[in-house]
Write a structure and sequence with these properties.
Blueprint lengths: L6 H14 L1 H7 L6 H4 L1 H27 L2 H27 L11 H9 L2 H4 L6 H7 L5 H4 L10 H7 L1 H13 L1 H7 L2 H8 L2 H4 L5 H16 L11 H5 L2
Helix pairs in contact: 1-2, 11-15, 12-13
Length: 237
Amino acid sequence: MFFKNNKFLLKIYKSYQLIFKPQNYHVETHSSNLRVFLGKNYYKAEKKIQNIYDEFYKISNLTFKKKNNRDLIDYNNVFLTISTQNYLFDIMAMAHSVENRSPLLDFKLFEFMNSIPKKIRNYNGLKSLYKNLLKKHLPEYIISSEKSGPNLPIKYWFNSRPEIKRKVYLYIKKNSDYLENYVSHELAKSINNDEVFKFDPNFEITFKVLCLIIWLKLNADKSLKDENIRLEELLNF
């Protein structure tokens, strides 16, 4: 928000959220205390928030009482997984002034797709109906590609920046005592004799070990004071 450093305008914005969009306000202002500033309106908004949560818990209680696995999966997907992912993704998008839109979450489309039996949706393999609809819009190599997780392009990062890769190896070996003290002697030994690096062509173990060392420096012995330090700067220590 352009006025996030203006306390007066921020209070006006939060007042608007509290009165007209209490569910959003509740998420965005955990640490705010506007009771004195808003008076009765604050408690009215809090009542609206409580009603929203009461409705949410009523649905969840009914779902769990039925003990129907299908209902439980649908409940978890709709009320927990999807809502959480949408909230986090929206926060990330808005932090960079990007208006995120998710057309596949249109409730009419969602309800319609749920009305189609799985044997039709997946008549020729998982998501085959969806893939068939997209054939005229996307190239075949995308339609037929195997499912893969949202992995970081670690291998590309390391291979495209050999100097950084070299410094990462040196940094890990230099700080292998953290692995000795907090993980195991065997891992520290494998790091120091390069065994881990030789058998880690995708750099997945290397990256995890690097993250662990940084986390321990920040949270265990607190030797790393600046949590916003750039990787290049950290590797030069």
